[in-house]
Design brief:
Layout (H helix, E strand, L loop, with lengths): L2 E7 L19 H16 L6 E4 L3 H14 L4 E4 L8 H9 L7 E6 L3 H9 L11 E6 L13 E7 L6 H33 L1
Parallel strand pairs: 1-4, 2-3, 2-4
Antiparallel strand pairs: 1-5, 5-6
Helix pairs in contact: 1-2, 1-5, 3-4
């Protein structure tokens, strides 16, 4: 079973309260809205993960929780301390520990570590702005095989500023119609073949 990875950088955070420690900074209103949009994207594209691993920092925690609520995520949301100020190896180590029955995972964290992880696995994406989501297929069958040398294929990339939900809905609807027509055609062809054999 091929493994797929969703890489989500926390949404825009607030600097309003200067007395707060960095780890305690919450999302600003715009960040909350962007996280909800990403939750909608997961639902529309049918990419809801089985597990979410998130940094415990308030801005990442809020992003993960808002995305989970909007996408009606039913799996385990786990907070990984090493993701705060984490390097690519911290994300890889946490993913290495996942059971093999898990196929799709989302990690929620911070730059520069998260951006560096994406660049290592894909090599094409230059930057990972706040609230952005990357969807990768990894060339591995077991999470223990994931290393810095693993090659991933970037399937989709979403930036909150550039997402048009109405356009996406139309496109997804058209894609679904095409798939339904293809499935019907294939079923009809199978039936016709059976008839011919008789």
């Amino acid at each position: 079973m091929t493994k797929t990875l969703l890489i989500l950088r926390h949404a825009k955070s607030s600097w309003k309260n200067e007395k707060l420690k960095d780890i305690d900074r919450p999302l600003k209103h715009r960040g909350e809205q962007d996280a909800v949009v990403i939750g909608k994207v997961l639902t529309m594209t049918e990419l809801i993960p089985q597990v979410i691993l998130s940094s415990p920092a308030q801005r990442a925690k809020q992003t993960a929780e808002l995305v989970s609520a909007e996408s009606k995520f039913k799996g385990e949301l786990k907070f990984v301390n090493s993701f705060y100020m984490g390097e690519p190896e911290n994300y890889i180590k946490a993913l290495n520990e996942l059971p093999d029955e898990i196929e799709r995972v989302m990690v929620v964290g911070h730059n520069p570590g998260l951006e560096a992880l994406l660049q290592l696995l894909d090599g094409k994406v230059d930057s990972l702005p706040t609230g952005s989501l990357a969807y990768l297929v990894l060339g591995i069958k077991h999470w223990t095989e994931l290393t810095k040398a693993t090659v991933g294929e970037l399937i989709s990339f979403w930036e909150p500023d550039e997402i048009n939900l109405e356009e996406m809905e139309v496109k997804m609807g058209k894609d679904k119609d095409k798939k339904d027509k293809k499935d019907k055609k294939e079923k009809k062809e199978k039936k016709d073949k059976k008839k011919d054999k008789k």
